[in-house]
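Continuing the series of single-chain predictions for the mutant panel. This is the parent chain; the variants come on the following pages.
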Amino acid sequence: MLLVPGSVNADLLFKVEKLPAPGETVLCPSYEMAPGGKGSNQAAAAARAGAEVVFVGHLGDDGHAAELRRILSETGMNIDDLAISAKPTAIAVIGIDKAGENAIIVASGANLDTGSDQIADERLRPGVTVLCQNEIRPEETFRILERAAARGARTILNLAPAGRIPASTLDALDILIVNEIEARMVAGDETTPLEILARELARRHGLVCIVTLGSAGAMAISADAGWRVGALAVRPVDTTGAGDTFAGVLAAFLDEGLDIPDALHRASVAAALSCEAIGAQSAQPTRSAIDGRLGELAPPVTLRAAARPAP
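Parent structure:
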């Protein structure tokens, strides 16, 4: 079972010719509303990939809440722990240009009420995978992960958006998912080659460090092993939810019992497929879609450990 405490937003999507520069106004003919938030995005991706998912979060008591509940429920996730806040439902304003690149502003609203107290100790047990991100209050995320590790659950953190993280939380992780910017922020290192940096994080904290590399794929590094996978060739329309799809699908297949290379392979395929349509969740692939395209991407290759360059 996959337990996902995290954010849920109403995403307002604006398709524009180009993203605005500071001080610039850009017009477009219309916008769309879709569910978003890294927590619900990852929960939805995992549910579509076949996982049993429980989502823990907050919505406001406002016009967006009922529609978001309906859409999230239709993914197959359990939303019994989606509570009501006095704060408004979180909103994300997302501009998407013709190349599929995006710029995002998030008003956190009700997401700020989601926390560790919503999860009873008995739910954090061996056989449960806890998947977190960094869009609720960071101290609540860290508390959940440390409690989960202490009680024997598998712990996964996608440190997005980037932020500082206590060593005690890193020590509690089984898997850390980061992009290059996030990896360098965690390590406090701007110069070391990325693979070596990831291996040092893995050794120091006893975790698997998975680094997403955009159109170059991803790599997974443990203290004594490593793998790299490419990216499926697609024509991107919207890259907004690719990282969330990757994290959710990876967690789903790990929770099912697949090993790191096999889960990495499927997550990379799913992330690419999610770029083929507009919307963080509406573009997420089903399990059958992932399986149907898996043969188009070569399986992960094993990496040989590289030494840190001499200073």
